Amino acid sequence: DDDVPRKCQERFLSRMALNDNKAGMEGLDRDKINKIIMESSKGSKFYENELKREQQVNRRIEKMMLQKAQITEQQLKKAQVQVEKTASVLEMSRDLSRVIVHVDMDAFYAAVEMRDCPELKDKPMAVGSMSMLSTSNYHARKYGVRAAMPGFIAKKLCPNLVIVSTNFDKYRAVSDEIREIFADYDPHFQPMSLDEAYLDFTDHLEQRQSWPESSRTHRYRSRSIECLVNKLLNLSPVLFEDSPNSSLGLLGSEGAAGDAFEVFGTSVEEAVREMRFRIEQKTRLTASAGIAPNTMLAKVCSDKNKPNGQYRLPSTREAVMDFIENLPVRKVCGIGKVSEKMLNALSISTCSHLGQQMALLSLLFSETSWHHFMEVSLGLGSTFIPRHEERKSMSTERTFRELSKAEEQFSLCRELCEDLAEDMKKEDLKAKTVTLKLKNVNFEVKTRALTLPYAVATVDEIFAVAKDLLKTEIENESPQPLRLRLMGVRVSAFVSLDDKKPLQKSIIGFLQPGKTESSGSSKDMHQNLEKENHSLQASPLVCPPLMQKYQRKEEVPWRNKQSQAGKEPQQSFFQRAHAKRLQLQAANGSKPEEGLEEDTSVITSGGICAEKAVKSSTKANDNKNAASDVSENELVSPVEAHASTSGCGGTSSETLTCPVCFRRVETTDLNIFNSHIDHCLNDPTRKPNQSTASDSESDLDLENDHQESEVVHRRRGECEAEGEMSKNSEELSRDSPHEGQQSLKNSSVQKGPLIKGDSKDVTSQQPQSCNSKGPVLICPVCQLTQETDDLTVFNHHVDLCLNQQVLHELGGQTSSSRNPPAVKNINIRGKCVYYMKLFSTFSLNTNPILCTFSLCCMTALETRCEHNVGILSPFK
DNA sequence: AGCGGTGCG
DNA sequence: GTCGCGCACCGCT
Question: Which DSSP letter does residue A387 get?
């Protein structure tokens, strides 16, 4: 009989039923609410579709259970070993040194509306429309009214519900206000939406310790008298009067209402409370916050004492594990309805279950998934705030009443394209992929995409593609018409502006590895670090700049010596890589990258034109009819390529050497230089006359848009010669067909600039500057020539070089930083992940985590740093 | 590349 | 009567 409520629940679609895992939903009549939801939904097309999708998920689960049934004891045991290895590696990377805060405004849109319209204060209300609600106030939540619920159902749950339509401009204005406050605590805070952000309080707290009381004192807002009066009259617009946390309660004790103020302490809690206080004083809205050693936990914590509260999870492993113990998996960011249901099917509902079942999970889920599960079960998460990534797509879509006439569909499609083109123009984007999205009246969604060899930006260009896609769909369905309820157009695969195309980015990166790296790759690196932190997915790492000492001493590829003088000192790669600190350095320090970023962003239009041309010239290059009739050292006029960029100055006598034609270009302006390279790339006759049969390996690979591909080819040869390493790492990692490619890419990008000076063929060319007789390779780390053509040998050298660099870097940290023993840094997650990445690029075809520590750290660090022997020994 | 699906706010 | 929009990412093919 205990099962009766359970059975009742199962009669409800899990997709449809009330989601009560969020705040404000405790102690309400679930069953009654679900009944109403079901009754208002049943029979609708939407419901039918949800039913279908639910069944799909059920089939997925059945399949999974079938798979589970076939797992043998032995397989499970083996998996267990693997899982434990991964767990100890992850454990090693645990970093409890950061203080991450997640701030979330309480019922944001609803709160803003209530603030501006006090009559709403005591009523259940929601923001949105009859067809969809954005959020509801806490009063309405008692009835089961929630965000993402259609208004008409909400009305059935709560007939008195007031629905206010959205005023985004207002929310944005408020958002700006709170972000100003955020910036005081972490100038690099990461907004997740208008009302939510992650902050890294670590540095603020450090400074705060020495702040005088006056800096920690904050006044009640000037209107506090008015507030007091309101409060006395019970008219206060404050959202949650009964909340014991309401800072207005303190007003009384302060006495004089006119100039009331409050002093905050130096602890984390006090700092966060202060921030929330300031938000409330400034906006008359309340916020909740979570304090934890990483983002994943902070997010969960911010929910814990909502509304208008905060929760701190102490930075100890014990506290974290206790916290995780009974945490429902659904609370974790990234685990949604479907994942929850799948996990539930395996009797996993809390994070501790997750940990107990890891072996099983590793056999049933993809590597990315189970790695994520494992991180969750260990209470791990990002310990730094990810930088905002560049956008990857842009779209617009619209829902409407049934639309069946082809004519109307086409004109709607055009409208969407117009909107989209307008949005693209604002960000100066050009995209190569256009995707059409259709949803029919049965809620079935279809997407159709086409990738062009060139980029589009105008209405007509986009519409030309979208129209074709639409036409095909209409024809496929004919003679029946498409009965649509939604249409959308999306563009992606941008080839724009600050990103430009990888081709150009790489070239700039190669030219000035230390500085220009930030125009793209520094950002990328943060992203990659974050990605790896989050999903453990191997991701490509861009070419790292060389170490400072080498950069000063040695020539940078393709850059002539005379142009090296008088440049500001460069940060080391390791400093840059260290997530948060790096960000701060970039902002407070000499900002070597900013000027360049501006420079390069001007290229766009020329760049895009060039890209088309590169494509079309591919064949010509393949034919190798590239005999150049120009003498090798001829000076080329920079304006030859694109005169339009001439506004960018460049009067110095410095020169750069073009990697395509190997002639010097009399400019330091990268725009101009880039244009020259574009021009060269477009002109097959520009290829240097010393081209040899090995061109296909050493020259820019024009068939591929990505500059990396050149190096990929080169590396591929190396990999095959690298049997020893690959074999070892394969033993440690799970078989994964994609892994190899991924790692290959990593390695290739990392080892980008093997070419030095005028030498262009890495494997056989002998640089003019070098007197040696045999073939020579140039180490990208130490920049010294290696007299060998054996790539395995060369690779070994590079690995050694790199390891030394790591050790050197660790040593440097000890002497100058407040963290005492250098090697302890390995335990700091940011650093640790970084090393993993670094090493993984040299271990092909492997799980990055395992291979890095097992292969590289063991060889590199174990012998040199006793501290780590103990930690690493499990992998022997 | 293209597509469907999951998840988030 | 009425169940959204914009974005990122994943896995499969």
Answer: P
Residue range A526-545: mean pLDDT, rounded: 29
Cα A783 to Cα A779: distance, rounded to the nearest angstrom: 5
Helix residue spans in A734-828 (DSSP H)? 737-750, 791-816
Cα(A61)–Cα(A59) distance, integer angstroms:
5
What are the backbone angles phi and psi of residue A105, rounded to the nearest 5°? Answer: -70, 145
- CB of A166 nearer than 7 A to strand C: no
Instruction: Name the residue with tokens 């992650």.
Output: A198
What is the per-residue pLDDT across A763-806, written as a single tens digit (0 to 9) for each? 333 333 333 334 556 655 555 666 665 555 555 544 554 545 54
- The distance (Å) linking the CA of A703 with the C1' of C9 is 28
Cβ A333 to strand B below 7 Å: yes
**Which among A353, A372, A389 is positioned nearest to A849, based on CA atoms?**
A372
Query: Which chain C positions come under 7 Å from a protein C-beta?
Result: 1-12
* pLDDT at residue number A387: 75
Percent of chain A with pLDDT over 90: 47
Interatomic CA–C1' length for residue A420 and nucleotide C8, angstroms: 19
How many angstroms is C1' of C4 away from CA of A110?
18
- List all residues 6 or more positions away from A622 whose beta carbon is below 8 Å from its beta carbon: A703
**Nucleotide in closest CA–C1' contact with A738:** C11
Q: Enter the pTM of the model.
A: 0.61
C8 C1': nearest CA residue: A392
Listed in sequence order, the residues at least 6 apart from A118 whose beta carbon sits closer than 8 Å to its beta carbon are: A235, A237
Asked if strand B contacts A61 at the CB level, meaning under 7 A, the answer is: no
The helix/strand/coil state of A71 is: coil
Q: Which element (helix H / strand E) includes A871?
A: helix A869-872
- DSSP H helical segments within A656-784, as ranges? 670-682, 695-698, 708-720, 723-732, 737-750
| 8 A C-beta contact, residue A125 and residue A162 | yes
Q: Give A160-228 as a 3 state SS string.
A: CCEEECCCHHHHHHHHHHHHHHHHHHCCCCEEEECCEEEEECHHHHHHHCCCCHHHHEEECCCCHHHHH
Task: Provide CB contacts within 8 A for A824, sequence distance 6+.
Answer: A867
Contact A489, A434 (CB under 8 A): yes
A64 touches strand C (CB under 7 A): no
Q: What are phi and psi of A160, to 5 degrees?
A: -85, 0
Q: Which residue is nearest to nucleotide C5 (CA to C1')?
A: A397
- The residue among A642 and A67 whose pLDDT is bigger is A67
Scan residues 420-439 of chain A and list those with Cβ within 7 Å of strand B: 432-433, 435
A806 CA vs C5 C1’ separation (Å): 46
Q: Which of residues 18-37 of A touch strand C (CB under 7 A)?
A: 37
